[in-house]
Amino acid sequence: MALFSCNNDDSSVDDLENIDFTKEDNAALQFMLEEEKLARDTYTYLDEIWEINQFSNIKKSEQSHMNAVIGLLGQYSISYTLLPYGEFNNQEIQKLYDRFIDYGSENRANALEVGASIEDLDIVDLANYIDATTNSAMIKVFESLQCGSRNHLRSFVDAIELSGNTYEPHYLTQEDYTVIINDSQEQCGR
């Protein structure tokens, strides 16, 4: 099983130092599993409607992101439940999914904006969880996921701009967004 979505090395969660696993860390893993599922499920849904390359490519990476979080949950013997596509345990994420698929179903421009918004949100949430933990295994995985999300954001924004539109960040600060967009594709996990 590949642990990191943007990684070609053979390291696994078991190789990482595991310290200070807290109740908050458990909640962070459960939340990020659902948020990565949000991305995968939304991109799968929108890909079936619009057949946009970003959705067909990035949904596979989102499954890798889910697998990385599942690896950590397994390492800590934390039970979790994955509901079917489009269904979420977390009601806030369920509301986001419902809103994203409604909006993204209207037209291609909206669909691409949804993709950028999900990556925008993911980067911010991962940063908050990285800052809140001292668990080195979680930090390493979350940093790799965040790197992948920055690449995904760039890809969606490129497609938005190629279609003659612009994206304004919904979650990132304008300054952080500009730094990410002006940076080049990253080699994550290396």
Describe what this molecule looks like in 3D.
It is built from six helices and no strands. It is mostly helical. The protein has a single domain, classed as Ferritin (Up-down Bundle), CATH 1.20.1260. Helix 1 packs antiparallel against helix 4 and helix 3 runs antiparallel to helix 4. The N terminus is likely disordered.
Supply database-style keywords:
single chain, mainly alpha, Ferritin, 190 residues
In short:
66% of the residues lie in helices and 0% in strands. It is mainly α and 190 residues long.
Distance between the first and last residues' Cα: 17 Å
> In percent, how much strand structure appears in the residues?
under 5%
Q: Please state the second-level CATH architecture.
A: Up-down Bundle
Q: Class, according to the CATH hierarchy?
A: Mainly Alpha
How many DSSP H or I helices? 6
CATH homologous superfamily? Answer: Ferritin, core subunit, four-helix bundle
Count of domain modules: 1
What is the global morphology? Answer: globular
Written as H for each helix and E for each strand, in order along the chain, the element string is: HHHHHH
Low-confidence stretches: 1-18
Helical percent range?
55-70%
Structural Rg: 16 Å
CATH topology: Ferritin
Average per-residue pLDDT, rounded, comes to 91
Which class best fits the helix and strand makeup? Answer: mainly alpha
Main sheet, how many strands, which sense, barrel?
Answer: none
Q: Care to count the β-strands?
A: 0
